[in-house]
Amino acid sequence: MGVPTLGCHCAVCESPDPHDQRTRPSVLLTYAGRNVVIDTTPDFRYQAMRARIDRLDAVVYTHGHADHVLGLDDIRPYNLRRRGPIPIYAAAETWLTLRRQFAYVFDDALPESTVPLVETHTIEGPFDLFDVKMIPVPALHGSGSVLGFRFGRAAYLTDFSRVPEASKPLLEGLDDFILDALRYVPHPTHSSVEQSLALVRELKPKRAWFTHICHDLGHADTNARLPENVRLSYDGLQFEVQL
Ligand SMILES: [Zn+2]
Ligand SMILES: [Zn+2]
Ligand SMILES: [Zn+2]
Known about the structure:
By secondary structure, the protein is of the alpha/beta class.
C-alpha cells in the first residue's frame, strides 16, 4: 500500500525519516548501458523520474498483483524514445493477468491515442537478458505463485510466503539477497521478519535486504534489532552486484 499508508497516522507513517517513506517495490538493474526493471508498480513513473531513467530496455515481472504491474501504461514515453516495443518477460500465469488488466494494450483495434507497445516473452526457465543470465526462482505467494530472479551473485525475491526446497539451491552463494519481509506479525501471503531471518540463516547470503516492508516496521528501530548483515532496504537504495 506504500508508506505513509493512506489515512494512517502511526509513528512510521508520520515519521520525519525519509527512509520511512516507501513507494511500491521494484528494482532497476543497470548494466552494459541498459536499464531493466523488475515490476512496474503504481509508482513506476515517479520512481523512473527519481532514478532519471532515460531509456527502458526490458521489464521482468514477478507476478500479476496490482502493486507490481499497474505502472505498465507509463512505459509509453520509452516506447516513443526507442520507436518500438519494449520486451516484457512474465510467467504464463502473469500474462493471463496482464492481458486481463491491460486488455486495451493487447486489443488489435487501432488505438486513437498511444498505448504501451510490448514484445511478449513467456518465462519458462532461465533466459538471457543482454548477456546476463536471469534465473527464475519459483516460490509460493499464499495460494498463488511468484517468481524471484537470480542475476549473478544477487537475487530478488519479493511477495513470497514459502520457498520450496527445489528453489533453494538457486539462492545459494549470494552476495546480496533482496527478500520480502512485510512485518513482524505472520501474514498468509508474505514472509515475516522472523521467517525471512530464518531463510537468511539457512541460505547464508553475505548481505540481505528486506523489502515490501509495511508501516509496522520503522527504518531505524528495525535496523537496530536486525543482525548486521541484514538491513531494511529503502527507496533509492543503490549497490553494485557481480553479474
Ligand atoms: Zn501507519
Ligand atoms: Zn503479491
Ligand atoms: Zn506485493
